Amino acid sequence: MNIMKFFKNVSREMKKVSWPKGRELTSYTITVITTVAFVAVFFALIDLGISQFLNLLF
């Protein structure tokens, strides 16, 4: 019976959550996608630079 009590508590807590509205959700999504793209490009450039440096050494 503990599992049923757990899910009942989860359901109760989920009703208290303040869910984002449409505009907020769009804004957050764009922020996350932009940040991920920036980090991906950053690490790709770092990787390229390290690869070029290692190719010069050997």
TrEMBL record:
<keyword id="KW-1003">Cell membrane</keyword>
<keyword id="KW-0813">Transport</keyword>
<keyword id="KW-0811">Translocation</keyword>
<keyword id="KW-1133">Transmembrane helix</keyword>
<comment type="function">
    <text>Essential subunit of the Sec protein translocation channel SecYEG. Clamps together the 2 halves of SecY. May contact the channel plug during translocation.</text>
</comment>
<protein>
    <recommendedName>
        <fullName>Protein translocase subunit SecE</fullName>
    </recommendedName>
</protein>
<comment type="similarity">
    <text>Belongs to the SecE/SEC61-gamma family.</text>
</comment>
<feature type="transmembrane region" description="Helical">
    <location>
        <begin position="25"/>
        <end position="46"/>
    </location>
</feature>
<keyword id="KW-0812">Transmembrane</keyword>
<keyword id="KW-0653">Protein transport</keyword>
<dbReference type="Pfam" id="PF00584">
    <property type="entry name" value="SecE"/>
</dbReference>
<dbReference type="InterPro" id="IPR005807">
    <property type="entry name" value="SecE_bac"/>
</dbReference>
<comment type="subunit">
    <text>Component of the Sec protein translocase complex. Heterotrimer consisting of SecY, SecE and SecG subunits. The heterotrimers can form oligomers, although 1 heterotrimer is thought to be able to translocate proteins. Interacts with the ribosome. Interacts with SecDF, and other proteins may be involved. Interacts with SecA.</text>
</comment>
<keyword id="KW-0472">Membrane</keyword>
<dbReference type="InterPro" id="IPR001901">
    <property type="entry name" value="Translocase_SecE/Sec61-g"/>
</dbReference>
<dbReference type="InterPro" id="IPR038379">
    <property type="entry name" value="SecE_sf"/>
</dbReference>
